[in-house]
Design brief:
This protein is α+β, with helices and mostly antiparallel strands and about 170 residues long. It has a single domain (about 1-170), classed as Alpha-D-Glucose-1,6-Bisphosphate, Chain A, domain 4 (2-Layer Sandwich), CATH 3.30.530.20. It is about 25% helix and about 40% strand. The protein has 3 helices and 8 strands, in the order αββαββββββα. The chain has helices at about 1-15, 40-50, 150-170; strands at about 20-25, 30-35, 70, 75-80, 85-95, 100-105, 115-125, 130-140. Helix 1 (about 1-15) packs parallel to helix 3 (about 150-170) and helix 2 (about 40-50) crosses helix 3. It is globular, with a radius of gyration of 15 Å. The chain starts with a helix and ends with a helix.
Length: about 170
């Protein structure tokens, strides 16, 4: 029942997204989300690689998404820099403009754990708009176990995908 409730909350945040934890084990999990965006692939990809425009400030270390940047090339940093601090959220490991962006690393509370992750965004033209598929695979050692973290990560990512969709369609997250 808890998983159904979490899925409903994630769907609420993401608009027309299909979201969910599709696999979970004691040492990791997989999240997959699919969303239709009423904007051309080129516009969605341009927004995707500029997270300062759409990412939620609530999910930053500095409290402001304006401090986020993503260097769109292999080895490029998805980083956050503010006066007195900085954090590397992940690194670009694969990029095919208007098609695929894959990041390696972990977000938020997972950084202090012995885990690694691959976050892949795949875009394709679909019925005059864009089909975006997000896949987040995370695994390793988590002190105390993963417990509720897969559902929490799914909800957070669903919120970000919903904000990206809103930004690409309306210009506001």
């Amino acid at each position: 029942m808890k998983t159904v409730f979490t899925l409903l909350i994630a769907l609420l945040f993401a608009g027309s997204a299909l979201a969910g934890v599709v696999d979970a084990s004691p040492n990791g999990f997989v999240i997959e989300q699919t969303i239709a965006i009423k904007a051309p692939v080129e516009k969605v990809f341009a927004a995707l690689i500029d997270p300062a425009l759409w990412w939620s400030s609530q999910h930053t270390f500095s409290g402001s998404a304006k401090n986020l940047s993503l260097e769109p090339k292999a080895g490029g940093c998805f980083c956050e820099v503010w006066p007195g601090g900085s954090v590397e959220h992940s690194r670009v490991v694969f990029i095919a403009p208007n098609s695929i962006l894959r990041l390696r690393g972990v977000l938020g509370p997972f950084q202090a754990q012995g885990v690694d992750g691959a976050l892949t965004f795949t875009l394709s033209a679909d019925q005059g708009g864009t089909k975006l598929v997000l896949q987040n695979i995370l695994g390793g050692y988590m002190k105390g176990g993963f417990g509720p973290w897969p559902d929490r990560a799914d909800a957070m990512l669903a919120e970000q995908v919903g904000r990206l969709k809103n930004f690409a369609e309306t210009g506001a997250p």
